[in-house]
Amino acid sequence: MGDVMRNSEFKKRLAAARPRLYRTALVWTHNRDMAEDLVQETSTKALEKSRQLRDIGALNAWLFRIMINNWRDYLRRNPATEDIDDHEACTYHTPETNNTRLETIQSVRSAVMQLPDAFKQTLMLVDLEEFSYIETAKILNIPVGTVMSRLSRARSRLRDQLAKEMSPPVGAQQPLRRIK
Question: Which 8-state DSSP code applies to residue 176?
Fold first, then answer.
């Protein structure tokens, strides 16, 4: 009876983790279909190897570890030969395209897409998926210090890129200030 209960709990948690996996896979792949395939492959492998998971509380980190390994396998089998500029960034269409909030979100997405994969993966796992540094290190199979340095460099690059995009162009007229 214990295995049946554990299996049921495992499947529920796996289904609950799917949106997080997809969101991260979409950032990594820049392609909705490929992200869905990556999540599906991750889910399939997780179900096949569910007995290897000793602590159900560590399921999320375990799933992301499987997904990063699947992604690395894909990249090894299909070396990048396309220019990143040939791919469109994922955008969500809304009627309020001039809305400042949406423009900011797009600027951040664009800046994240320009990061090297190692930085992007670390940033996504820590800042978006809220994994600890130790969990991220285990998922990516790197030392904790490397997680910290990649995260620092990723944030620094994002800050620099966004500051460059948000600053007014050189020679642009500044609004007049009222002097009393």
Answer: P
